[in-house]
Amino acid sequence: METIKPIEISLDTSNPKEKLTSAEMGKLWATYMGNSMSKCILSYYLQHVEDNDIKKLLENASQLSLEMLKTIEEIFTKENFPIPQGFTEKDVNLGAPRLFEDQFYVHYLKYVAKAGMSIYNVAIPLVYRKDIREFYVYCMNSTMALMEQIKDILMNKGFIMKPPVIPVPDKVEFVHQDFLNGFFGHVRPLHALEIAHFYDNIENNLASKALIMGFAQVTRNEKVRELFERGRELVTTNTEHYMQKLHDENLPSPSFRDDLVTTSTFAPFSDKLMLFHKMDMFAMKLRSFGNSVAVNGRHDIASLYSNVLMKNSAFVQEVIKIMIENGWLEQPPKAVDRENLASG
């Protein structure tokens, strides 16, 4: 497996007075926060990995996070932008026993790589400064290269079940009036895009459930544990609904990965990091629901996603409240509050 090589990002802009836009600030800030968390998590995973291929994969992912952090720090320093606190060595206990099996690391990397690509995909059309454009193209290309390595390992080691196979159409067809039916009348079979997004949401949830199970197992804060347990139940219920939709069409679905969580009760991460991570992962689910709804045509599926969207949004709000109560939620860059500006 090749090492993903960094590229030189030009820190020169076409106009030396060109300021960062809100989009550039926001995306750089979010990228920094996510990668400062990944740096901690991957450093812990590397303490407990036996498979050499998976170890190399973790090393590539870790190096990629470090490269992104380094570049953002250089940009922020040049702009006199305060470096976010993010997450530090205080948020990870490298001496904690193994919490996850090696196989989980590969599924986890696929999940967070998808999350990263969604950030970079949105950023690329929104950023205009030359150095920021180059940086996000690098982020996208290098994460895509990492994703290919992840998929190779998943397939070569038999860790993954591909999306369901359906027949090739016999001819071009146009939909009829029953296309939107989901509760009454003739309900058509799922089409390929609906199946793809059910599979994607299941795959995301399998990694998310295993992670939140591990977090609930190790936290010493009862309030945080209760929240994680609620999140685990929510993910389980949602996943079972998605699986049932596939099973109703006699299509297979991947199985849970709960067996990849060990019995350790020693926390490798701070509650601050674990809460931020679950907030981030559930936020990604909200983005995934938008993509799923956009290609859906059946009323029952739209109703399912609407219900899941509401419950996941409520969970994210609960996580945010606890983080605010504990002073753990950093403020993203914000516009001027002109109503409260002191008069001259």
Using the coordinates above, name the CATH class of the largest domain: Mainly Alpha
Fraction of residues in helices?
A: 55-70%
The CATH architecture of the largest domain? Up-down Bundle
The general outline is globular
- The average pLDDT is 91
Helix count, per DSSP?
Answer: 8
Q: Which structural class matches the secondary elements?
A: mainly alpha
- CATH fold group of the largest domain: Ferritin
Number of strands: 0
**From the alpha-carbon coordinates, what is the Rg to the nearest angstrom?**
22 Å
* Measured distance between first and last alpha carbons: 62 Å
Number of separate structural domains:
2
CATH superfamily label of the largest domain: Ferritin, core subunit, four-helix bundle
Q: Report the sheet with the most strands, covering strand number, pairing sense and barrel closure.
A: none
State the order of secondary-structure elements, H for helix, E for strand: HHHHHHHH
What share of residues are in beta strands?
under 5%
Low-confidence stretches: none
Description of the structure:
This protein is an all-alpha fold and 344 residues long. The protein is 60% helix and 0% strand. It is globular and about 60 Å long.
Q: What order do the helices and strands come in, and which of them pair?
A:
Elements (H helix, E strand, L loop, with lengths): L21 H24 L6 H27 L23 H25 L3 H27 L35 H27 L3 H26 L23 H25 L3 H27 L19
Protein name: DUF3231 family protein
Organism: Ectobacillus funiculus
InterPro entries: DUF3231, Ferritin-like
Question: Descriptors for this entry?
Answer:
2 domains; Ferritin; 344 residues; 0% strand; mainly alpha; DUF3231 family protein
